[in-house]
Amino acid sequence: MNVSKFAATAALILFSAGSLAAKPTSIVFDANGTASDGTAYSTYTVKCSNGKKAELTAWNNRAKWCVGDASSQAREKKQINAAKDACKAPQ
Q1: Which of 3, 32, 69, 79 is least crowded, fewest Cβ atoms below 10 Å from its Cβ?
Q2: What is the CB neighbour count within 10 angstroms for residue 59?
Q3: Could you give the residue ranges of the DSSP H alpha helices within the chain?
Q4: Residue 53, CA distances (Å) to 2, 47, 56 in order
Q5: CA 36 → CA 2, 9, 23, 30, 40, distances in Å?
Q6: Does residue 33 contact residue 43 with C-beta atoms inside 8 Å?
Q7: Is this structure's pTM higher than 0.90?
């Protein structure tokens, strides 16, 4: 009996922790720009459920998304995945 109570409690805690994780609530276009080598890019602002705001940069006609600027190592192929990464990143 104690094992089943422990398992149920553990599952509830894991579910609660997952639901409290910061998630993107909106993604807003900011501006278009051109890098020093002539490559066009766009910047976006992500608002997260924990109140955090983060910058996303889109390259190659929105085919590559970076958290922050182009020097960032956090790159994704989809906007929503980059936004989720931006919300998970430490402030």
Answers
A1: 3
A2: 16
A3: 2-19, 79-88
A4: 44, 5, 10
A5: 64, 55, 33, 19, 10
A6: yes
A7: no
